[in-house]
Every structure is written in structure tokens, then in C-alpha cells.
Write the C-alpha cells for this entry.
Amino acid sequence: MKMKLFLPGPVSVRSEVLKQFEKPVIGHRTKEASEIQKSIIINMQKIFGTKEDILVSTSSGTGLMEGAIRSCTRKRALICALGSFGELWQKLGIENGIETDILRTEPGEATDPNKLEEVLKKKDYDFVGITHNETSSGILNNLKELKPIIEKYSEIIWAIDTVSSAGGTPIDQDKYGIDISITSSQKCLGLVPGLSFASFSTKAVEKARTIENRGHYLDLLLLYNYSREHNFQYPSTPAISNMVAAEYQLNYIVNEEGLENRFKRHLTMSNYFKDWANKNFEVFGNKKYLSPTITCVKNTKNLNFEKLSDEFSKRGIVISNGYGSMADKTFRVGHMGDTTLGDMKEFTKIFDEILKNI
Amino acid sequence: MKMKLFLPGPVSVRSEVLKQFEKPVIGHRTKEASEIQKSIIINMQKIFGTKEDILVSTSSGTGLMEGAIRSCTRKRALICALGSFGELWQKLGIENGIETDILRTEPGEATDPNKLEEVLKKKDYDFVGITHNETSSGILNNLKELKPIIEKYSEIIWAIDTVSSAGGTPIDQDKYGIDISITSSQKCLGLVPGLSFASFSTKAVEKARTIENRGHYLDLLLLYNYSREHNFQYPSTPAISNMVAAEYQLNYIVNEEGLENRFKRHLTMSNYFKDWANKNFEVFGNKKYLSPTITCVKNTKNLNFEKLSDEFSKRGIVISNGYGSMADKTFRVGHMGDTTLGDMKEFTKIFDEILKNI
């Protein structure tokens, strides 16, 4: 059976995009490869809302999150976490010998600007990593609220994890003065997993130049230097077929569907599903900061998730249980990528059916 | 025009393999994902000639080479280089703060066991990385000659870079007592780039457990621990569609074509092309150690490579210039993956035509 994914990533990918993989493999040192990279840059700049440079990595988003904190922290890093993926970012720092603190929020809450200000006053941070959209709790941080605090510290490199938001909601990197936005292919961009993308501001480049022990494969400065010096190509063989598919899909996102339409579609799907979820269960988290790309639902009916998941599975649908400590208390539904309002209506119809019989 | 790649990687991929990407994306936390990983393990064990565990990384081979040296060196590392990719491995160590020495050979020569013995006596090495097949010079190291030297040092973790040999020639990891064999998807395995594979011996696992600062994304021990504890799944979202294609192709390699036939085919193509090259140019390197997967040809006719490459390009063929310092003096032809003797005959026929008119 063809399974439809309502996961917080990976997402179902349009068949036109999958068909791109049928094209014969091209060499990664060809002019064609350079052109693909250039096209990806232009469209990712629009998606991130930046004029800064764009890097592509053959890795998951975790790889670039590790690369960012390692390449750009000289003194001390702070992670503003909304849940599991913020916890992971702190770990990525510590595992590379970087002194990394974490500012946690209560589950379901966004980062409090006042608390951020308090923390930044205490120690000499030069890297701040913020989870934009937390896949484990369905919360979207408000970058506008955090900007006035972070911009007081001119030395800080500000990086954001937009793995589950870029392409589904505006990022507006340059408007907020963000230096590095990181995302993955398999979420709102509607691609298969295997690639990740990062913007890399001039300020971040300058900073990385002053830092030693940045490693190699995930070193953002190496990717930047090499691609500038080698006509937008990369030091190691990149997942070139995945890049061909990315070029095709990013062009669709920006020039066919259009970003405004895409963001509106995500919001419409989100509102529709959250209404349904509040009628039947309860949406987890502070209403002011709910994510437009994923909904974390409190399992108020105490359904056995495995049984629920099996019922969906029989009907060709995959959903996700809660993440980490919320595994049993919540479940998660992704409405991102190229999923449509029609898909969501079909999904809730099936959910209604299951609820009648479970 | 559909271009046929005679590169030392990436290689042209069979259309049946590319078609695997058309399958709907599956979740990486599903039972299906676990089954795919298990199947990849079984077939990669046969390709590497080992009973040890197999790890899959969403990265190029460079990523796992960095992971290996960082995860398994506590004291000092030595790289036995045959050319550019050995130089790179040393750099990967140094860029991670690891004291890494290099034993170079004259271009076109294999590693001399006597010289290796001399070097190992001098310092307290606990990691030795050896290039098995050097893509830049077309030389294959003789692991049998090196085994008696390395096995004298029981503490050493022995890793080999089989990026351009695994799947094209026997590796026999367990026969030689190798701990880590590393390869990439886009060479002899006949897959698109984006994945790399490593074996990871029990001895290497034990060693990595004693080492701090291994990082995260490329940490072999993390991949090992996580996949053992989570039913053969991975900590970060892997390139799951690429893994579906890998499962299909590795099954073809091991169970349809068969490894012996595959190795024989590579040797036949290599002998055929080297004969042709010696008649028309001259094969670079010591005859005793020539690679069965790639031929480095001395440009004895002083052809302008760009012009030569353009002529091939017009006929739908991509070849590669020399690498690094040999860029102008040599060119390279890959005969690996699912290329056939028929392809090589067609290739030399076209080359003959070009030579008449250039």
C-alpha cells in the first residue's frame, strides 16, 4: 500500500520530484553541478529571507547544527530550547568540547525574552542557537520578540534551527539580524531526506575565521571557502541526484506555488487541524506560539498509541507518537511540505472513523 | 543528451536502481526502515568480507573517514597515503586536533611494508589509516603485504579507505584483521552519491569507548550504540530513499550478479582498458599495484585535456582530468560499478576516433 505520511518529517514527496532521480547521474565537478548549486542558493535565500550565502551539506540538519556551533563558538554558547531538539543542540556543543548552556522553557511555552536577557547578562556568550519550530512540542518561537535582546550583544553569532519551519512559514533572517538559518530537505521543503541547507552571514564567516578545531566535513567555513573558490562546487562528493531534485522542488516552491501561497496553505491546514484536534482532544502548548507546520495533540482520550497507529496504518496513513518524555501523553501530526487542506480533511475524516470504533 | 560517466566516481547508475526513488518516502522510525538497514548490513558484510557490524552514514566517504580517525585515535594516528585522498585523511585528523603523521609513497607506488615497519617503530601509534585504492593515481595497496607489520601492534585500530574499491575487488577485512573499512555509495557499488558505509569491529568499538570528544554526527560509536539500541535505526533522519535504493542494489550485487562475477568483470574491464591505454598512451604507476577499478593514464601525447574532454562530451561521455599535482600530466578513466566490457569497448572505439581527429 502507498503510505501517506502525516509525520513531523519525513514528508510524502510529490511524484514529479521523485522522478528527478531518474535522470542520469551527473558529475559533481561539471558546469551543470555549479548551475544547480547556484539555483539552489537563489531559492533558499528567498526561503530564509536573506541575501547572505547559502551552503548545502550532504547530511541531516543535525550535521549542520553541529557544524554551526563548532565553527562559530569561541567563548561560550547558549541554546534556547523548546524541547528535545534544543536539548540535542546543547549536546552537540558539549560533545565538541564547547561550553554550552541551555535556557529551557516549560513544555509548550516559547522562549521568554526577559529570561533570555537575564541569562545573556550573566556570562560572555558569543553564540546563541535558538530552536525556531520545535517538532517535539509543536511550538514556534517568536523571533521578533527575541531580536531586541540578542542585538544588544554585537559579538553574538545568532543561529536558528528552522528544520521544521523553513518553507512552511516566513523566516525573515535579515529582518531579524540572524546569521545562520539551518534546515533539512525532508520537512517543509517537501524533499526526501539526505540534504541540509544553511545560510552563513558575512559576520559568521568572519567569526569562523578566528576559530580553530572546526573539523572538516561539517565545517561551515570550509564549505563556504571551497564553494566560493571552486565555482559553487563542494570539497567532497555531494548527493548530486538529491540536489537535482532539490533544484526542481525549490524552483516549484518559489516560482510556481509562490512563498506567500505556500505559507498561507500551511496556516490554513494548521488552523483546520487544530480546530478539529481541540474538538476531539486538546492541542498541546501555549496558544500564542503554536506551530503552523505541526500539531502536538494531548492524548486526552488515553488512547493506546500503538493501536491508534495500527488503525491508521491499515488505512495507509503514518502518524507519530509523542517525542521523548511526552511519548505517551501526546501524539504528533505534521501538516507540512506539499500536504494540502484536502489531505487534512481526508485525514480527519479517517480519524473520526477510527475514533468511533476504537 | 544522456551522459555516460567514465569517472572515478560518481558512476552511471542502473535505471532500475534510480527507479527505486520513485517509491513513496517511508518513515525512518518504521519497521520497514529497520528491515532495510538489516538487509544492507548483511550484504555490506559480504562486500567487506567481515562478520563485524556495519554502519550507514548520510554523508560522503570523507565524513566517515573523519569519524573513524576522530572516534578511534587516543594517542597518535598514521596515514599510509598513495596520493591526494591519503593527504586528505591526514588533514582530517589534524583538523580535529589529532596528532597525525603521514607515510607517503612516490606517485604510482604502493605502501612499502618495510617503510611502514620503520615508521611504526618510531612512535606510539594507535590508529593506522590506509588508502586501499587511490583514485588520484590508480594504485591499489596490497593489504596482504601490510598485515604482518600492523598485526605486531595489538593496540592499533586499522582502518582502510575502500571508497573506490569495495564492490569492485575483494576487501577481505577479517582475513587481514582490519577494524574499519569505509566506502561510498557512488563508486563501485553503483549508487548515487549521498551515503557512506563503514564496518566497525568489536575492537574498534571498545577503543572508541575510551575516547572523549568524538563529536556527534560522525561519531561511529554513537551510530553503533544507537542502532543497536533502536532496532537498527539511526539518531538523525537518514537519507531513507537512498537507503531503499542501496538495499535494492546491494541485493543485486551480492545475490544476482554475485561478488565473484562482479570482481571478475572489474578485472576484465581493467585489463582491457589498460592494454588499450598502453598501446596509445602509457598507464601510470607500478605494474604490480595497478587498480582494477580505475586507470590513471599518462598524457604522453600532450593532449589539451579541456579539448579532449569537450570531444568526449559531444559524444555523451564524461572522463576526468588528473587530480591535484598530476592534473595536467595525466587523465583518469573509471571502470567501476555496473559499467560493462561492452561499454569499455565502445569507449575505446570513440577514443580511437577522437585521436584520429584531434
